Predict the 3D structure of the following.
Amino acid sequence: MKGLRGIISIIICLVGSIGSQCIYAAETKEAPYTRTGSPVGCEIDEQDPGVSKISKTFAVNASDKVILDNQYGTLNVRTWNKNEVRLDVIVYGSPELDARRLSEFVTVNAIKNEGVVILDTKLSGSKRLNGKKIRVEFMVYMPETNNLKLLHQYGNVSIGDFTGSVVAGVQYGNFSAGDLKNSNNDLSISYGSTTIKSINKAKISQEYGNGLTIGSVGTLSLNSSYAAVKINTILEKANISLEYGAGLVIGAVGQLTLDAAYANVRIGTIKNYAKISHQYSDLNIGVANGVNLNAQYSNVKLGRLNGDAKLSIQYNSLNIDDVSVDCQSLIVDCAYVKTNIKFNSNYNGSLDASTSNSSLNYGAGISVRVEGDKQNKRYKGKIGVGGNAKVNLVSSYGSAVVN
């Protein structure tokens, strides 16, 4: 990033039927830019004696779509009640630079034709003028309900609460948003952090950077690699693919499909049902109301099991602290695993366990009949007084304790 490479493009396309009339928007340059006031969300550096601002404003209707494509600098998108979109390009210099020269450093050409508005912003030279460093900020004001698509590189992006859909591609910068209310959001962030207060429905890709943080989300499709992910609440369902990075933390989720490798996973509550594939790290679930788990080389810990479960685990360990009476079917197949399962004191059901080159120890509340030889054994009996609930356990080349 030694230079701007000459061009920063900002394209705003308004999709709608406005005829074939071609309009060239007027360009407004202000130099110097006095500090009697500044746009909302735009910080003015009081140490800079000269600041240049160029603005473009044009009308939009409810069906119009706004597309931004730019590089270098901070992009802030703010909403207002006007049926207009306004772009402010603000150029900051250093004390040695004259503000009028800063205004000549930036050229913005705007064309509106058949529902398309193009704003082409060019910066002459690099991020330095006469050897002095230049800083650029982009401010966009638009109605909250219009759909937005943006591509941004080498700078941070900030969006407030938004009703229209948001499609964003951000590289080498952070992305932050308030409440994204639309059901069609698509975000791709790499080499930067993502922070979202809440989002209705979204497809998100997060790679590298400082990770992804979401307060609440309705429905989520997430692909993450080499990044930490923290989500407080998933209200409905999520499909998550995760590898490497600092891990995944979910407070509560309705329905979950998860494929994770080389990343620790911690989930507070699975309210409905989860299908999980997990490899080479730790998996910790507080409460699960139903789970289908396939794990390899994982240390699996489940606090409370309130529903049916099918667990297939190879290598490392499995610990279940409390199998409640709401679990009517528990199927466990372990190989090279240290297994420890505790049943609630009120639990009643049947037990059918098989071991191969493995040991099985059981508590006083479990009564079984043992068949087989030293290498292979079969245990059939009941937990508590017996009942309709069924527990099937297979342990090979490991150890198992049930009580």
